[in-house]
Amino acid sequence: MAEQIPLSPGASAVDPELDAARGDKTHQIAPDLAYRRLGIVNVVFWGRPGAGDRQWVLVDAGIPGTKGMITEAAAERFGPGARPSAIVMTHGHFDHIGALEDLAEEWDAPVYAHPLEHPYLNGRASYPPGDPSVGGGAMAALARFYPRGPVDVGSRLRAFPEDGTIPEMPGWRWLHTPGHSVGHVSLWREADRTIVAGDAFVTTGQESAYAVAVQRAEMHGPPTYYTVEWDKAKQSVAKLAALDPDLVVTGHGEPMKGPEMRTALYRLAEEFDRVAVPRQGKYLDHPARAEDGSAYR
Questions:
Q1: In terms of Cα–Cα distance, which of 71, 42, 19 is closest to 204?
Q2: Cα separation, 1 vs 139, whole angstroms
Q3: Which of 16, 64, 23 is nearest to 40 (CA)?
Q4: Which residues pair with 291 in a beta bridge?
Q5: Residues of the chain with pLDDT under 70
Q6: To which H or E segment does residue 175 belong?
């Protein structure tokens, strides 16, 4: 499997000394933004440390079996018993919704997602199957066995406002960034030029178990084995690169910052067909679309 666009350790937004001093089991990358790695995926916490009950937001919900790690990190960061004002979903693949049903019920929290993603979150539809023919690594090879849902948080499910705002995250906007899934969104804060990208692009080779284990840093297109609309994935990366971000945190890999990160993101957008799109794959010729219903099994 070819490496995409390498990133040096100097582009990492993680400060190990600061994290060790704080000791809340998260990596803080802005005064009100932190993430925790849960095996193969990241969850993001928005809100200042000690914010208290209903004064913070969880972005995505990890893999199955990680509820305890998420609630532990939340309690240590925001205070014992502190519940989020909302759970915001970039999309609903199995590695992002593992603890969603349990957390939404325990916290009695609304769940925000793009309307095109709702069928996967209200029990109506399963995702298209993963494509093991792409990627060239163990994670891709196992794609056919990954859970495809759906989950059902329909009673708490909310659509993002059409004006682009996020009700519980002042200063942030949601951007529709389809390709990896039909209702995928990324989050953007212009004040400090920060992107929470979900899986629109990632910063490690998610197809490779080795790259995932060591978190080898590279600017990488969306995980190939789950991406169902490559034309839209290309457009989404171009949209995010055009924002000229200073800081990005993705669903997989370390958060990255600064000029090196931007240069790599620009290059990914410009050379997307060459460096991100697999040479073969079931969704290259037969994308799964919301428009014709093929995205909803």
A1: 42
A2: 12
A3: 64
A4: none
A5: 1-3, 135-136, 139-141, 143, 145, 206-215
A6: strand 173-176
Report d(CA 247, CA 21) in Å as an integer: 22
SS3 77: helix
Tell me which residue has tokens 């600061």. 18
Inter-axis angle of helices 230-241 and 258-270, nearest 10: 150
Q: What is the pTM of this model?
A: 0.95
Give the integer Cα–Cα distance in Å for 203 and 252.
6
Cross-sheet strand order for the sheet of 194-198: 173-176, 185-189, 194-198, 247-250, 256-257
The separation between CA 200 and the C-alpha centre of its own chain, rounded to angstroms, equals 7
Provide the Cα torsion 246, 91, 76, 32; round to 10°: 30
Q: What is the pLDDT of residue 239?
A: 98
Closest of 212, 74, 101, 90 to residue 155, by C-alpha: 101
* Lookup: tokens for 32: 């009100």
Q: How far is it, in rounded angstroms, from Cα 293 to Cα 290? A: 5
Residues written for the chain: 297
